Amino acid sequence: MATIFQALLVVTSCLQVCIGTSTTSPAFSVSVPENVAVGETIFSLTWIQAGEKAELPCNKMEGDPYNRFTVTKNCTVVVANPLDWSVQPVYLLNIRSGHRNTSVQVELTDINGYPPVYNETCQTPVRPYSNRKTEDLLFQLQFSGEVVTESGDILSGNKVYHNTSDLWKIKPPFDWQIQTDNGDCNVHIVSYDTYIDYLNTLQQLWDKNIHQLKCTSDSKLPGIVIDLYNLKLNIEKDEPRRATLKKYVPESVVNNRDLNFLLIWSWPFPTTKTVSYSCDVPSDIDFSFKSNDIRALVNIEYLDIGITPVGCPVGKYGLRCQRDCICKNGARCHGFNGACKCPPGW
């Protein structure tokens, strides 16, 4: 899955004076991932221009046939348009700074799953403009079920979630906690908590050797799969699960011994209509139940999950609609992964 450029740029050659060239023509090499965000600064030559007159700004002279970069007057190189390693992996920019020419070689690194593929199977609707800024999810999530308390009371109800703060009460999730695959419409959400009742429930599941829960779909789509990982154990011995875990979770989190359990929710994203799932939950596991003034340990009789795609507003994409689309010339932006679909004639 494509990730947003976060402090990944690496200046591989700080300052290199080429042999056989004038000392007025320094050369630089910069390496950046191809999915670096538009607007990101990748290099700055401001210190070179310190001895130049203010009325002699920097200008990009050549080496950028697709206009992927801009150079500001103060000699900062900025990404102007999306990059693609397969189109051009290396750019040799020639920049005039005052009375000297500066060569900057920009090398792109190929990122797996980038650029994203426009898959019409999970093409989402475009959400009409709304002043209700709290509705920031690409989908609406509904839980409904029935539970039995320790005293034998039967409680039932449902809850609808349509914004980030519903699902993550304390703070928004990290980018790695919500991932979408490149073109197969799969969603992966990583969750963890330190709440004692939550941990007790997961410990019961683990002790009963239940490391995966499934929710079956009422459609042709595959169901929801919830994988349970115990970070306290030596997961290095379980190579298949270790490989899956490290595919979606940073190494620092996997090795964090302050965390106990971690869940990875995976499911294919529906396109235009609500898909309902019925979850197979063991009836002898105690779950913490909170509703208004009621708080109790309960056993789940049944649990159903409904997922309805609602789309993002124009110009936004992602499961939290937090990312900016980069499509131009009338191309449609895929709400799921930001891929662009060109209109006829392009």
Compact summary:
With 346 residues, the protein is mainly beta. The protein has helices spanning 164-167, 196-207, 239-248, 251-254, and strands at 10-16, 27-33, 41-44, 58-62, 69-71, 76-79, 90-97, 100-109, 139-149, 154-161, 178-180, 186-191, 212-217, 224-230, 261-268, 275-279, 287-291, 294-309, 316-317, 323-324, 332-333, 340-341.
- How does the overall form come out from the CA principal axes? elongated
Helix percent reads under 10%
Mean pLDDT: 80
Number of DSSP helical runs:
4
| Quantity of strands, as a count | 22
User: Which structural class should the secondary elements be placed in?
Assistant: mainly beta
N-to-C span: 26 Å
- What Rg do the Cα atoms give? 25 Å
What report would you give on this structure?
The structure is a single chain. With 346 residues, this protein is mainly beta. The protein has 2 domains: 10-109, Sandwich (Immunoglobulin-like); 120-309, no CATH class. The protein is built from 4 helices and 22 strands. The chain has helices at residues 164-167, 196-207, 239-248, 251-254, and strands spanning 10-16, 27-33, 41-44, 58-62, 69-71, 76-79, 90-97, 100-109, 139-149, 154-161, 178-180, 186-191, 212-217, 224-230, 261-268, 275-279, 287-291, 294-309, 316-317, 323-324, 332-333, 340-341. Strands 9, 10, 11, 12, 13, 14, 15, 16, 17 and 18 form a 10-stranded antiparallel sheet that branches. A 5-stranded mixed sheet has the order 1-2-8-7-4, with no helix packed on it. Strands 3-6-5 form a 3-stranded antiparallel sheet, with no helix packed on it. A hairpin with a 5-residue loop joins β19 and β20 (323-324). It is elongated and about 85 Å long. Residues 1-24 have low confidence and may be disordered.
